[in-house]
Write a structure and sequence with these properties.
The chain is mostly helical. The chain has one helix and no strands.
């Protein structure tokens, strides 16, 4: 040791090894955290895709149910119109028969079900 300096210093390769290990640890930690974040992001994307598919499916079901209800309402309306037309026709025929002298008993009241 020329110059009589402090002899209790660590060799340069030991300090370099410590720095290299520290860099390796930081890099590995960053890699693992990025991998974890990417996994979580992928899981979130899958979750959102699944929820979007479910909402789309439910929307289709509601649309189909609305169409069925609309068709049923139209059928019921037509049935009511036909029943009304038939009642009018029956009353007209009864009136004509009464005019010809036929005796027609009164109609029994319909008991609602």
């Amino acid at each position: 040791m020329v110059g009589g300096g402090v002899t209790a210093t660590a060799p340069w390769w030991a300090a370099g090894s410590v720095v290299a290990l520290w860099l390796l640890r930081e890099t590995w930690t960053a890699f693992l955290s990025r991998r974890k974040e990417r996994t979580e992001t992928d899981a979130n994307v899958d979750l959102i895709k699944g929820l979007s598919d479910r909402v789309s499916f439910l929307d289709q079901r509601v649309t189909a149910q609305d169409e069925r209800l609309q068709a049923e309402m139209l059928l019921r309306l037509r049935a009511q119109e036909e029943a009304s037309a038939l009642r009018t026709r029956v009353r007209q025929l009864e009136s004509t028969l009464r005019g010809l002298g036929a005796v027609i008993p009164p109609e029994d009241p319909v008991v609602p079900a």
